[in-house]
Write a structure and sequence with these properties.
Blueprint: H1 2-9, E1 21-26, H2 32-46, E2 52-57, H3 68-76, H4 97-102, E3 105-108, H5 111-120, E4 128-130, H6 143-160
Parallel strand pairs: 1-2, 1-3, 3-4
């Protein structure tokens, strides 16, 4: 997904658009951050905006897929996997300096994630934020736990990007 943000820098139709590249960060990059990226990408795509998100984890198991429960929660919410938003093909990875450089904004699931990123990448301090609500980790939970996590993410994104709700 990282390469996808490069496409936002130069929209194919040549129109002037908001070319925002957002990196969502959680712990393992299999639940919260890929769900947040999928929600963001779905909303931006529906609004015809060039903004795009990708995700990474602080302690990811390289190559792990999105958890089946996270994918199911997205599907149940009507977020379809698509070429521009292919969460079904998600492959977890640990956040890198290149990820931090590529992103215009880095949104963390909790203050602890933000603090860890600040320690690892102090040069990126100006673009690291925590979502307006801490998002509890649903890993290992049932479908209801994942649905609740997705609802929290939707609300947090609405608070952080109110202009995208119109």
């Amino acid at each position: 997904m990282n390469a996808a943000c490069e496409a936002v820098k130069k929209p194919a139709d040549g129109a002037e658009k908001e070319n925002l590249c957002v990196l969502f960060v959680c712990t393992g990059n299999t639940c919260r951050s890929p769900m947040a990226a999928a929600l963001f990408n779905d909303r931006m795509q529906k609004e015809g905006r060039a903004a795009l998100a990708f995700s990474a984890g602080l302690f990811a198991e390289e190559g792990a897929p999105i958890t089946p429960a996270a994918a199911a929660a997205l599907q149940a919410a009507g977020i379809a996997a698509s070429e521009r938003n292919d969460y079904a093909a998600h492959s977890a990875h640990t956040v890198t300096a290149a990820d931090m450089a590529r992103a215009d904004l880095v949104l963390c699931m909790s203050d602890r994630h933000a603090m860890e990123l600040l320690l690892r990448f102090p040069e990126a301090a100006g673009k690291i934020e925590t979502l307006p609500l801490a998002v509890p980790d649903p890993y290992g939970g049932d479908a209801a736990v994942y649905a609740a996590c997705l609802s929290t993410l939707q609300y947090a994104l609405l608070l952080r990007f109110p202009e995208a709700a119109s």
